[in-house]
C-alpha cells in the first residue's frame, strides 16, 4: 500500500538516510545457520486523532472535533486500525511458521506475552495486530461465525501512573531531568528557531520559548490533520521543513542524558538480558516472544539503551516497530543479538541495524552486547524507587 501525500512534508517527515541499515529477507527458522531463540518487540500504535494538547494549538478546533466525533481525542482512526493489522501481518510473516518459527500458527499462551499501555489506541492496536497474527485454525475456531475469523488473545495493561512504559508522564525524576533539558535546550538547540516564535505565538497563542516540546506537539497536530484528510494551515506551509527539524530536536530531548535513557528503556532491556541469560544457561524460558504495544517514546528509548547506531536520526512514526532478537549459531554455538527496525508496517521493508560498538556485523556477539549496554539496565522495582511510584506490582 502506497502512502497518500496531502502535502509534500507528509511523505518526507520521517524520512531517514539509512546509510547504515540493510534490507532483510524472511525465509525460514534458521538464517545463515542462526536460530532465533528470543524476540522483544516494541511497536508504535496506528494513526490517531489529535490529543487535547495538540487541539489547543489548532485554529480549526471545531472542524477537528467533528471529524473525530466517533473516535474522540487520541482515538485510533480507521487508517490506524489498518496499520495495526499490518503490524500483526508482519509479526506473523517474520516470527511465524513461514518465517523464523518462534511462534506457532495457533495461539499458545506459553509462546507469547503481550503488554499494552493503558491507552485506547495502544490496546486497540494490540487487539487488531493479534487478529492478523492468529487467524484461527480449526482447533481454535469456537463457532461458525465470528469464531472462524477471530481468536481472542489476552494482554496486560497496568494503570498509567504505575506503568514503566509511561515513564515520561508518571516518573517525577524523569520530569525533573526533562525540565533541565528543556531549559538548557532553549539557549542551545532551539536558538536557531527563534525567528519562528512570533509567528507561532500569533497563530497558536502559545509561547514556544517556554516549552520547546510544543514544536513536537504542533508537528503531531499537523500529522493527525493530514491523516484525517485535512491539509496543514496556509501559514504553516512555508515553515514546515524547519518545524519538522525542530520537532525532531524536541523528540530527542527525551533521550538527552544517559539517566533519561535508562529510565525510559532500561526496564525492557533488563528483562531481555535476564531472559537471554536464562536461555543461554539452559533454563526453561516461556513466552519467548514479547510484544509491547506502546508509543514512539518507547520505540526510541529501547533503541537508545541498546546503543543502536544513528538512532538520533529516526523519528518513529505510526506503525513503526523495533525488535531485539537473540540467536544461536548452530555450527559454533555462538549467541548473538540482532536489532531490527520496521519504519512503517505495510508500507516498508524491515531493516537490519547495527549497535554502536558492533559496527562490523548486524549480529552482535551477546556478551559484547551485554557489556555495551549494562549501564542502562534497570530492574522494574528499581524503576519504581527512582521514580517515587507506589505500586503493588
UniProtKB/TrEMBL annotation:
PROSITE patterns: HIS_ACID_PHOSPHAT_1 (PS00616). Keywords: Disulfide bond, Glycoprotein, Hydrolase, Signal. It catalyses: a phosphate monoester + H2O = an alcohol + phosphate. Its EC number is 3.1.3.2. Gene3D superfamilies: Phosphoglycerate mutase-like (3.40.50.1240). InterPro entries: Acid_Pase_AS (IPR033379), His_Pase_clade-2 (IPR000560), His_PPase_superfam (IPR029033), Histidine_acid_phosphatase (IPR050645). SUPFAM superfamilies: Phosphoglycerate mutase-like (SSF53254). Pfam families: His_Phos_2 (PF00328). One of its GO terms (molecular function) is acid phosphatase activity. Belongs to the histidine acid phosphatase family. This is acid phosphatase.
Amino acid at each position: 500500500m502506497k502512502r497518500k501525500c496531502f502535502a509534500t512534508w507528509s511523505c518526507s517527515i520521517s524520512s531517514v538516510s539509512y546509510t547504515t541499515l540493510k534490507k532483510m529477507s524472511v525465509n525460514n527458522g534458521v538464517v545463515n545457520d542462526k536460530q532465533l531463540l528470543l524476540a522483544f518487540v516494541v511497536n508504535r500504535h496506528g494513526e490517531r486523532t489529535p490529543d487535547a494538547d495538540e487541539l489547543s494549538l489548532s485554529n480549526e478546533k471545531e472542524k477537528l472535533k467533528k471529524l473525530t466525533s466517533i473516535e474522540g481525542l487520541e482515538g485510533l482512526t480507521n487508517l490506524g486500525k489498518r496499520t495495526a493489522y499490518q503490524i500483526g501481518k508482519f509479526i506473523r510473516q517474520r516470527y511465524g511458521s513461514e518465517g523464523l518459527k518462534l511462534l506457532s500458527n495457533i495461539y499458545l499462551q506459553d509462546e507469547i506475552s503481550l503488554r499494552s499501555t493503558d491507552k485506547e489506541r495502544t490496546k486497540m492496536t494490540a487487539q487488531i495486530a493479534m487478529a492478523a497474527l492468529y487467524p484461527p485454525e480449526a482447533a481454535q475456531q469456537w463457532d461458525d461465525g465470528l469464531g472462524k475469523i477471530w481468536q481472542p488473545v489476552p494482554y496486560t495493561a497496568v494503570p498509567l501512573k504505575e506503568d514503566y512504559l509511561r515513564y515520561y508522564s508518571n516518573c517525577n525524576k524523569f520530569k525533573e531531568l526533562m525540565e533541565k533539558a528543556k531549559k538548557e535546550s532553549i539557549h542551545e538547540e532551539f536558538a536557531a528557531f527563534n525567528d519562528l516564535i512570533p509567528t507561532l505565538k500569533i497563530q497558536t497563542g502559545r509561547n514556544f520559548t517556554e516549552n520547546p516540546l510544543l514544536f513536537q506537539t504542533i508537528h503531531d497536530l499537523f500529522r493527525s490533520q493530514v491523516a484525517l484528510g485535512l491539509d496543514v494551515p496556509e501559514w504553516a506551509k512555508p515553515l514546515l521543513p524547519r518545524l519538522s527539524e525542530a520537532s525532531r530536536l524536541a523528540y530527542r530531548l527525551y533521550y538527552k542524558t544517559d539517566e533519561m535513557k535508562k529510565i525510559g528503556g532500561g526496564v525492557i532491556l533488563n528483562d531481555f538480558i535476564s531472559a537471554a541469560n536464562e536461555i543461554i544457561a539452559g533454563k526453561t524460558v516461556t513466552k519467548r516472544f514479547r510484544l509491547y504495544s506502546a508509543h514512539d517514546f518507547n520505540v526510541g528509548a529501547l533503541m537508545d539503551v541498546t546503543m543502536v547506531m544513528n538512532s538520533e536520526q529516526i523519528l518513529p512514526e505510526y506503525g513503526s516497530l523495533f525488535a531485539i532478537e537473540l540467536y544461536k549459531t548452530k555450527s559454533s554455538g555462538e549467541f548473538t543479538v540482532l536489532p531490527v527496525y520496521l519504519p512503517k508496517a505495510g508500507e516498508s521493508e524491515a531493516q537490519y541495524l547495527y549497535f554502536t560498538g558492533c559496527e562490523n556485523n548486524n549480529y552482535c556477539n551477546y556478551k559484547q552486547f551485554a557489556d555495551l549496554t549494562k549501564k542502562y539496565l534497570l530492574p522494574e522495582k528499581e524503576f519504581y524507587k527512582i521514580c517515587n511510584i507506589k505500586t503493588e506490582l
